[in-house]
Fold each of these.
Amino acid sequence: MNNPDETNERPRLALGLMSGTSLDGIDAAIITTDGEQIVEPGPFISVPYDGGLRDRMRNLLRPEPNQDDRASVAADITQAHAKAVDKLIEENGITRSKIDIIGFHGHTIFHEPAASRTDQIGDGKLLAALTGCAVVNDFRSEDVAAGGQGAPLAPLYHRARSAGLARPLAVLNIGGVANVTWLGRGEDQILAFDTGPGCALIDDWVYAHDAGRFDRDGLIAKLGSIDHANLSDLSRSEYFGKKPPKSLDRSDFSRGSIDQLDFADGAATLTAFTVESIARASDHFAAPVERWLVTGGGRHNLAIMDGLCTRLGVPVDPVELVGWRGDALEAEAFGFLAVRSLRGLPLSLPSTTGCGAPITGGRLWRPPRGD
């Protein structure tokens, strides 16, 4: 992190941006925060990607993408994020100069922390120039360089937001990949890791059958039957027994022999696989949780949510039941982390990413000065 401002503890107006592994679009959210305890959520929007850009992003999801394609998509993604910032500001009458910082996650196209590699595309310098606001991006690199997984990064925000809620508590984010934050009764009792596939395998299955981009409300899975032999094969992965912290790339799991199934049965089986992988995460908790709070697009999938309620045996609720906004939470988290980065505070802990010591991070970009 360059230019830390850790001596200034005043609350900042931060705008967080998130483009998740589901490839659906950009979430943009305003929060006022000191990066520690004070969190006051403001307005947010979600802006879908147009189909052409989404397809180009999908084509980059491999270890060695074409560099010309990568640069072109990175520039277009940055332009799309700038338009999302403009839309959020204009629709809510926000004075642009009052925005202290933008937290710009970019879009992950490859993640292999075991090889010390993580790649989020998006140009922080260009975004600062386009928006006229200071920008923090590149949140993961320092953690990975220090031996951490580089993910997940939202747990410290989950901890800040969960003050006053009964613990032990699990906060589950179901995006393309699913990740969980376990919060114990003590302030320092926190564990986080990727649980396994979220909606990515299901989305790809639906997309491959020309039936849309995702299984809306889980209705396709609801029409099918689980193939338990295939579910058992998928669930044999050594990843589930691996001690956390641990993280995944979107492509780390394949559909196996699911392609032999009909459309609805395949959707039902992949959905059951997501449920089973999440349920197995609880084997790593230091104490059983009293409740699961679910954020991310997967909370809208009724087949996943019903499966989790049955499998976990404790309340499984969308985060809206405690007053959080599931569509905004990840974007809010990167606004929160941008403020922490400005202050030189840690973005990750040994128990959230496996880094050897608390690690700050992020790269700060100032907008160019006028003549």
Amino acid sequence: MQKISVYVNQIKNFKITRKIVIQIFLVLLLSMIFSLVYFNLTTISLYLHNFGSIYNSRLQLYSIYVGQGDSSFIILPNKTSILIDTGTEEYAEKFCDELESVMDANSLEKIDYMFLTHPHSDHIGGALKVFEQFEVVNIFRPIICSPLEENLQGYDVSDDFLYIEVLERAEQEGNVEFILPKEINVDDYTLKIWTPLSTNYSDLNDYSPIITIQNAENSLMFTGDLTIDGEAEFLNTYKDIEIDVDVLKVAHHGSENATSAEFLEKVNPEIAIISAGVDNIYNFPNDQLMQRLNDSGVNKILSTNMAGTIGMSVSGDVYNFATGFIFHDRVVFVVIYFILLFAIFSVKKNGTLKKVERIRAGSNLIVSKKNF
């Protein structure tokens, strides 16, 4: 009861001092700033990179951060541009803003080749925004049809609303072709589509093409969401062909059910890039996949969930990297907030001020003694 009385008296005698007002102001300001930053960490991270060191290089590759999705943008030496997938709907606007900044820095006015690897929204989610914001000349679409398309017998059909809308918009935008094995020559580079080799897969992910972009010096490989089954088809078909790649865009965000040891042995990459979202519910990239990459002798592994957007320039055997920034450890961020909060309430009066007050108190005591 005595303690309660003490607390009650303290409340009754509580006075709002200048110090308390300042502390309240600092707490509100700190809380507002940290809230804005905390809930927009990924957005902020998109603008915390500098790719100036690789702009206008001989060959550029950007694995753009699109959350739990996938998108790659390649610029060849003659400024031919190639976009492979467009990420998620959630990141469509941020993705296009970042894509535009890269294009502007390289004085690009259009996208020459666009590949939509398969109908899943984490790969085609930004396509409508791309069509709205950029000119796209050539569009390669999956060999999967929509219910609205006629005279396309023998092809699988997807009734996904987004996919249907993307196909309709693509037809209005540019030249549209099915993704089938073929070669496209651009200067001394060859863009080769190796798969798909069938028109009927049980898993939509296996419609994802294997694409290489290569010349006499360098080779990049992109695999969409291809599974181990799709890889097996590729390995069996091209078992007598030697294929070595410098850079492998790892399939299916680094899942366990892709990028087999046999596939890695076949393509023998030096650098592996994984596109995955921060704190994604699938825990991609998978630990077993990472072990396979290490066991296969990959020299460098980069993942967007750790590095943000990944930029790379290639010239012969020289690779330059530039990465974005993602503050992915939110627990540390919260701890920093409470440390600063504690610091605000721990601030005491300035030592000099205390000294002045002690001198004044001493002077008053001397004066009172003289008067006495």
Amino acid sequence: MSTAALVSTADASRVRVVGGGPAGAAAALAALAEGARVTIEEKSVFPRHKVCGEFLSPEIAPILDELGLGGLLAASHAARITRAALHIGGREKRFRLPETAYGLSRSSLDRLLFEAAQRRGAAPNAPRARLGAPGAAAPEPDFGRCSAVVIARGRRAGSGAGARSGTRIFGFKAHHVGAAARASDDAVELYFFEGGYCGVSPIENGAINVCGLAPEALLRARGFRPDALFPPALVSRLRGLERSFDWLLTGPLDLHGGLHARSDAYLAGDALSFVDPFTGSGILAALLTGRLAGRAAARRLSHDRYHAECRRVLRRQRDVAALLRDMLRARLSASLVRWIPGRLLYQLTRPAC
């Protein structure tokens, strides 16, 4: 018998989800599937852009299926990604992905997931969480005291702020459009340069997302224009394309923080652990931990048990990402490209689904 069947309507868990991005929406959908009553809070008005690589790993498809959203990728016209390329220190490694991945903008993905959670019964608990109606007053659901809280509102406030000024890391992103966008329209590409890197990948409607990380000092020296840092190969790749909006920047980012836990809430997504973006598995980790958090909240599992499961799921991904980052910092990138099979690198940076 399912857990949902064991929870009566009168005694249904009352789950409060703070954050309506991928992790929060997944938590709400998972809790609803368990028979819980859910409120979801989001400060933003969808759709909105957010700094993100917008790469959806193949493992996301079965998670969406389990959340009842199996048709989302096709309906959103997400780009299909079958190949990858690494450009490091003048060397290049190309390989095919084990399975098809997808590219979908956060402005589309977040809106679709949030809409799905609301359709299933998640009640918005803040005026701005009402799609397309930023000034509308949302009714306050009479759920009384929630039995469980999921926090999925993104990076912790101040994370990364302790680093010395100039060494802090910032993320950047802009969408690009034009005929040249289709030159490698089924490939995700990573370009590494001194102090940072940039990913290029297709998204819906024939556009490409250009997103990366760079040190604050380098960005400031170039007037916070990320494209002034790009290596020649990336400049050539983007030739003939136009940005569809100004560069978005976010930070400082904490790339070395551990997995966070609380005794009074289930943390999910970046609130739980900030995944190194070059792995391309941030959205996967958000959906995966959000689903786990929603289930745990609805079933009233202990917070310690939930966070221990998250450590197990994310351990390999975090350890491998830290090792690769150390190799890049030690200028061992040429060896990385030459000797390590690309598909192995890709598989080692996936969480344990």
